[in-house]
Amino acid sequence: MAFINLQNVTYKYPLTKTPVLQNINLQVNEGEFIAVVGPNGAGKSTLCYTLAGFVPHFFKGEISGSVEVAGRESSKSTLDEWVRNVGLAFQNPFNQISGAKYTVFEEIAFGLENNGVPREEIKPRVEEALSLTDISDLADRSPYSLSGGQQQRVALTSILVMRPKLLVLDEPTSQMDPIGTREVFGVVRKMAEGGMTVVMVEHKMEWIAQFADRVIALQDGKILLEGKPNELLTSDLLSENGFGISRYTSTAREAKKQGLWKSEKLPVTLDEAAEGFKP
Amino acid sequence: MHERLSYYVKRDSALHRLNPLTKIILALSIVLVSIVSPWYWTAHILLLLVIVPLSFAGRVSREYFTSAIRLILPAAGFIFLMQAFFQPIGNTVIFKYLFLDVTQESLSFAFRISTRIAVMISAFTLFLLTTHPSELMSDLTRRGLPPQFAYVIISTLQILPQMQAKAQTIIAAQRSRGLDTESTFFKRAGSVVPLVGPLVFGSLVEVEERAIAIEARGFTSKSIKTSLHEIPDSLSDKIIRWVLILLVLLSIALKIWLS
User: Fold this and answer.
1) Using a CB-CB distance cutoff of 8 angstroms, which residues of chain B are in contact with residue A49?
2) B207 in the same domain as B252
3) Structural contact between residues B165 and B203, judged by C-beta atoms closer than 8 angstroms
4) What band does A189 get if pLDDT is binned at 50, 70 and 90?
5) Which of B150, B213, B223 lies at the smallest CB-CB distance from A95?
6) What is residue A102's predicted lDDT score, i.e. its pLDDT?
7) Cα–Cα dist A28/A197, whole Å
8) I want to staple A5 with a disulfide (CB 3.0 to 4.6 A). Which of A45, A68, A152, B110 is the partner?
9) Are both B116 and B243 inside the same structural domain?
10) Strand runs labelled E in chain B
11) Are B103 and B201 within one domain?
12) Do B124 and B152 have their domain in common?
């Protein structure tokens, strides 16, 4: 059975008229790395909150259909049970700093302390997580003194350290430079290979194409397309519906119109584009 | 940016090594004894023979004297002047200003009260200088303080400087679009209005996100919380606490017996 199983999920925030998610059906296997793309207001963040249990437990509102992760039903669990299996990191890194801790090391230990992990175990786990995301050198800094990109890494690390079965990431690299982004995608890929299931909302198509197993294109609260990154990210439907697409794809599409792009398949990454433009 | 977010000074000293609760009780007992003691010179002696030596024992004397000059002296001085001028006691007028009489009695009363104020502020300054806020909260949580309460205190301490920085950013952004913040008083007062909206509403949105973030990290988890740092609580801590409590009870008894 699928690790994540969404059946006809429709959800409306309180005090709104139109549902943000409409009839979402989604099955994800354990250890799969799913990327979610879509224009603003497509319901990407709401989908993340739904998987992480905050819809409906935190935001209330009306939900129908069923949300199942690791064989458990969201509506039959409480939020504090749910977050033991599902980790969520979201976009704004500043608001993810707990504010209860004075150093990055303590900040990352916060989740483990809350879940009652014994003291002897906390230290090695935090150290392991810090080296995984390559921020060991920040351990003694105040989380508030860091740059946006560094704070995003801290936010990601403080979720990874809890070893969730499902990792939900809502634009975790929005404030990072290209090197940072690449490293985060690499870490996430590694976690997926280790058996962690990952759902990640992201706009950076080149990286999705290289690292994700499957892409979901969301629009107006519905799943528009679903498929392998290379097929889906070059689909004409995406650009017609106002999705952001990779600059390499749009360049090649333009080139194709003028007969400069020979191959049938459009590129998503720089390497594919370079390969295709070779005489 | 804000590397230093609390008064805490990281040193290794006997005072630093005491359990946080012992230090709270120490500060409270100094304050209580200085208030209830029937003897006139108690507060003065506590200040000179207990607090000052403690600041050396805690290796924070320099920080203590800095805050004594910047905070304690002005506060105690203000109280002294108020009491000396406005306390309507005594007949031995030493000094007259308009309709205000400064009498020998009001002077001596003012000296006692202002020293008490200095003792109060000093005791808690020493406590803050030698106690790490997160150690304090972990220790109190371990003893049964609700973690939500501890969180509110600690996060407020940390978030206030952040809000100040944010207010500065909003002001800079609005000034760059022509908001007048440098002319007459009334214009400047008026320019506070457009600051309030973004700051207050922005903070409300932040509260929601922060709630999600800490919830995602098991803040409301029902398991018994553990703590990264081991907080010292030795036998001598327990003995000190009981001795202090005894001293406070003794001085209360003395006060009741003498009155």
Assistant:
1) 212
2) no
3) no
4) very high
5) B213
6) 86
7) 8
8) A68
9) yes
10) 93-97, 100-103
11) no
12) no
Assess if residue B2 is contained within a domain: no
Q: What is the pLDDT of residue A205?
A: 92
Provide ipTM, 2 decimals.
Answer: 0.89
Supply angle C-alpha A219, A220, A221, rounded to 5.
90
Looking at per-residue pLDDT, the higher value among A124 and B190 belongs to A124
**Cβ neighbours of B238 (radius 10 Å):** 13
Query: CB atoms < 10 A from the CB of B178, how many?
Result: 6
Q: Are B251 and B37 in contact (CB under 8 A)?
A: yes
Tokens representing B245 are 């409590």
Per the structure, how many domains does chain B have? 2
- Pick the residue of A144, A151, A160, A167 with the most B CBs within 10 A to test the interface with B by mutation: A144
- Do B87 and B199 belong to one domain? no
Minimal CA separation from A97 to chain B, in Å: 7
Q: Which domain holds residue B63?
A: 14-131+232-258
Is there a domain that residue B90 lies in? Answer: yes
Closest CB to B5: pick one of A52, A58, A102.
A102
- Considering only CB atoms, A83 lies closest to which of B5, B211, B216, namely B216
According to the model, what pLDDT value does residue B191 have?
75
How far apart CA A273 and CA A246 sit, in angstroms, is 11
How many residues can be counted in chain B?
259
Q: What is the pLDDT of residue A68?
A: 95
In a domain, B112, yes or no: yes
Mapped to the 3 state alphabet, what secondary structure does A72-134 carry?
A: EEHHHCCHHHHCCCEEEECCCCHHHCCCCCCCHHHHHHHHHHHCCCCHHHHHHHHHHHHHHCC
Looking at the complex, report in whole angstroms how far the Cα of residue B19 sits from the nearest Cα belonging to chain A.
18
A126 confidence band (pLDDT: 50, 70, 90): very high
Give strand pairing partners of A201.
A36, A170
∠ CA(B125), CA(B128), CA(B132), 5° rounding? 165
CB contact under 8 A, A100 and B211: no
Tally A–B CB contacts below 8 A.
122
Q: In which residue ranges of chain B is pLDDT below 50?
A: 1-3
Residues of A in contact with B215 (CB under 8 A): 54, 58, 79-80, 83
Residues B193 and B71 in one domain: no
pLDDT at B88: 83
pLDDT cut 90: percent of chain B above it: 48
Lowest-confidence segment of A126-140, A144-158, A237-251, B90-104 by average pLDDT: B90-104
List, as ranges, residues 142-171 from B with C-beta within 8 Å of A: 150-151, 154-155, 158-159, 161-162
Question: Residue A68 forms beta bridges with which residues?
Answer: A5, A73
Residue of B nearest to A147 (CA): B1
CA–centroid distance for A173 within its chain: 9
Tell me, yes or no, whether B76 lies in a domain. yes
Residues B179-207: tens digit of each pLDDT: 777 778 887 777 777 778 888 888 888 88
**What are phi and psi for residue B189, nearest 5 degrees?**
-60, -40
